[in-house]
């Protein structure tokens, strides 16, 4: 592998509190959220309700994406709206506009890496239920609610494996991307794996530009899973590492990032948010829901990121943790962070962004990386909302008020379902 | 094969994980409510049982391991299933 260096030159965050970096940063500074109570009705009867950080009034047509492409997607999907695909497209468009990248639409070697846990899943299940409902009306006395619940349990393992080349196809065709492409799925850590994959594509010399993107549109079927696991917050407030943390809250959104060979970025005088120094990864090979408490897998991923990034731990100014607001997972994460940086570290500062935008699942790490880039750009550490007191058994504190700090080197960490651990280091140039 | 001293072995394993005298771990004492063991340690106990007896505790059973007796019954079942 060559010594090529990797620059991040475009940010395209799409969140419940703002689309694009400027709107998002303004909202973050104000501590805004867009938490809504989502009520799901079936045949007029309330089925479930849960809190969600929601994107209101989303209109894909307002993002300046080629109309013919959107028409072709809709035709392919027989009129069905695939919201998480639209979030992907909107995010990439925002990132490309931000990067001011110009390229030959007919022929280019631009690569694309999409990180997604289960694109189209919510709509897929809804469509299946509607289909079964038609059957029920013809041949059975089962209620739609009964069928919905039955179908949820019947498909929860298989449908979550749903993957499709078509999501990538729609993305590539929309933006005329003709180079290497790949879909990444490592649960919530997908974004970090995607960044590393993009880095390796550039370092191998295959492409000088990689568009990395992710999204999620979590709704009732993902909620039911988390509810069954007793992991969803009852009051809608995510409290990462908090003493009174009571669970996860989903968030709509997506994020595009443009990553480039640093030399190319400098040559075209691109704005460079940071250099991607390296990532570290580990796989626990244990359970799906539970992290392997007592193991050192997460520590290993963080140390590997520092090693590949050639960064001493003393140089890290800020950690953006996964911080989901579940005591078991947060404790596991806090242990890993304090094992690496020491108990109650004064440096680096530790923050988490899910209280602002919710948990965007497979899209969470790219989205939070984009926010981390904005913190770097503005030399400002955003506080963790909703947390007055950190859990007494975690030997670390989180940032509770905005902190102005000369940020140079920052770390993003994630411990995902199914034991996917990841970390990535970035440095301001 | 289920060892004759399975309960003793489990007590040793659990006491090591939670750093507690084995004799304090009574058969029906609730790990969390009676012994003050937190949810993290309860998960760690699962990992230690798996490692010691080379069994795989099904994920959905983890939250059901709340007492020594429950751990004993589950481990016994897993060892018998292995035979």
Please provide a written account of the structure.
- The complex is a heterodimer of chains A (429) and B (83).
- Chain A has 429 residues and is an alpha/beta fold.
- Chain A contains 13 helices and 16 strands.
- Chain A has helices at residues 21-29, 67-76, 83-99, 121-139, 144-159, 165-175, 190-203, 220-228, 262-267, 297-308, 327-341, 354-357, 364-378; strands at 6-15, 18-19, 35-42, 45-53, 111-115, 181-184, 209-216, 250-251, 253-261, 274-283, 318-320, 349-351, 380-381, 403-404, 409-415, 420-427.
- The model of chain A has no long low-confidence stretch (mean pLDDT 93).
- Chain B is mostly helical.
- Chain B has one domain: Non-ribosomal Peptide Synthetase Peptidyl Carrier Protein, Chain A (Orthogonal Bundle), CATH 1.10.1200.10.
- In chain B, helix 1 packs across helix 2 and helix 1 (6-18) crosses helix 3.
- Chain B is globular and about 35 Å long.
- Classes of the chains: A alpha/beta (429), B mainly alpha (83).
- The A-B interface holds A 286-295, 327-328, 331-332, 393 and B 17, 38-41, 43-44, 46-48, 59, 62.
Brief rundown of the structure:
Chain A contains 13 helices and 16 strands. Chain A has helices at residues 21-29, 67-76, 83-99, 121-139, 144-159, 165-175, 190-203, 220-228, 262-267, 297-308, 327-341, 354-357, 364-378; strands spanning 6-15, 18-19, 35-42, 45-53, 111-115, 181-184, 209-216, 250-251, 253-261, 274-283, 318-320, 349-351, 380-381, 403-404, 409-415, 420-427.
